[in-house]
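ok so i was messing around last nite and threw this chain in just to see what happens. nothing serious, just curious
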Amino acid sequence: MEKQNYHDNNNALTEVSLALAMAFFSIMILSIFALSQSKISEMKINIEKNKNDTDKESKLKKIIYYYEGFFYDKNFKKVFLPNFLKNNKNVILSVSPKISLESLFEIKANFKKIDVKITQHNKSIIEKIRTLK
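result:
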């Protein structure tokens, strides 16, 4: 009796099933790629819309600088914070890059119910404030 060889390359059904599996796998990969590309293009559109919204928002926001315990407006004049916040509900707060996290949270506590964005000011801002003292 002759042993059957399971690795016979002449079996037509094996070849057909292997070819179909490769075809379905290729179609699946192409479908995933196509779907991911459509999601990426939707994200780009949303990012552009959000970018336009943030441009409008930044025009409405008033900047205030914090340096060594005092707040300054865009003209580098000292500001009494409660009066400033009565008139401005959207604020960009610029702080020193060397400020501690604890100090930052203490400062942020002054801005209750105010939309505050925090950024770091550069050396030229610090120099301008120092010259005014």
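not much to say yet. Strands lie at 62-67, 70-72, 78-79, 90-95, 115-120.
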